[in-house]
Design a protein that fits this description.
The strands form four sheets. Strands 1, 2, 3, 4, 5, 6 and 17 form a seven-stranded mixed sheet that branches. The protein has eight helices and 17 strands. The chain is α/β, with parallel strands linked by helices and 323 residues long.
Length: 323
């Protein structure tokens, strides 16, 4: 593995002639894309800044054969597998991606912060997203531990416990209704959310209690969430708190390339992750905020299939011209 944390990039086996594909982002989507491409005998580099979204979580669930594994262990295993195929793994941050003019086909210079540029025929952007949390004391410190988002990721680990849902997002009502599947003791903390009569009726029918009042802070003692404190000083004991974060894609590289966005501001892609810019794919949470680890890995594989076919088509056209 090539180490660039000191700001320099050592010479890598594919650097002189360029890479066929540079993958930006070393999470499940990026690593799986690189794996499939390496198995297609493509010259591949993965550039990763070391900021996985699920780093705070102790374990991940719902990934067949990897259920319960620590997120860091999954990435370590994936990187070791890629190294076995000769993929160059660079620990660095990409500053920007620049199309190469007059190349006759898609080509890009991937500029590393404090380092050189990597030439690539194709680029896969798998930079993920970051979770923006409500500015309440205690939430950020407990994020991914007992302040959570996805019931399918963490619900089983907190099943049958007293659960709270923070009413900081319109989706909180559905989240509370959903969490009732994992626990008979679910409370919706109204906080800043205005509940309609229909919301209240649905919550009551499902056995979800509503606690009125703004939440002041998360209460943590002995390194465990104990509940929340309301603005009036009322304590609401809970063992886990769920909320909807504000999901912010790390998409500056994509829009530096003028990739098209949808009405919500997310990059638009086809089913394989192909963007509006020829030669550029976007996969994982940077394009799909709902993607879990296992679906992000699958998206990476799908992108690799399509990308390799795209390269084959280009290789054939070049051979025809040469002939």
């Amino acid at each position: 593995m090539s180490d660039t944390r000191n700001g320099t990039v050592p010479e890598t086996p594919g650097a002189a002639d360029g890479y066929e594909v540079v993958v930006v982002g070393g999470g499940a989507a990026g690593l799986n894309a690189a794996l499939v491409l390496a198995r297609a005998c493509r010259r591949v580099a993965v550039v990763d800044a070391g900021q996985p979204r699920n780093a705070p979580a102790a374990r991940m669930g719902g990934f067949l054969s990897r259920d319960g594994i620590a997120p860091a262990a999954l990435l370590e295993t994936g990187r070791a597998e890629l190294a076995g195929y000769g993929v160059d793994l660079l620990d660095a941050r990409v500053d920007h991606i620049e199309p190469v003019p007059a190349a006759g086909a898609p080509a890009f210079d991937v500029h590393l912060a404090g380092g050189p540029a990597l030439r690539a025929r194709r680029v896969v952007v798998a930079t993920g997203l970051r979770d923006g949390l409500p500015e309440l004391p205690g939430l950020a410190e407990r994020w991914g531990r007992d302040v959570l988002h996805c019931p399918y990721c963490h619900g089983y680990e907190v099943r049958d416990r007293p659960l709270g849902v923070l009413g900081s997002h319109p989706g909180a009502v559905h989240q509370a209704l959903l969490l009732r599947q994992w626990s008979a003791d679910v409370v919706l903390l109204a906080h800043t959310l205005e509940l309609s009569a229909d919301d209240r009726a649905r919550l009551a029918a499902r056995g979800v209690r509503v606690v009125e009042g703004a939440v002041k802070r998360a209460v943590v003692t002995d390194d465990r969430l104990r509940g929340v404190e309301l603005a009036d000083g009322t304590a609401v004991p809970r063992e886990a708190l769920f909320l909807f974060p504000r999901m912010v894609p790390r998409d500056a590289l994509l829009f530096g390339l003028d990739c098209e966005r949808d009405a919500q501001g997310w990059v638009t892609t086809d089913r394989t992750g192909r963007t509006s810019v020829p030669g550029v794919w976007a996969v994982g949470n940077v394009a799909d905020p709902r993607a879990q680890v296992v679906t992000a890995a699958g998206a990476g594989a799908a992108a690799a299939f399509a990308l390799n076919h795209d390269l084959v088509d280009e290789d054939v056209e070049r051979a025809l011209v040469a002939a």
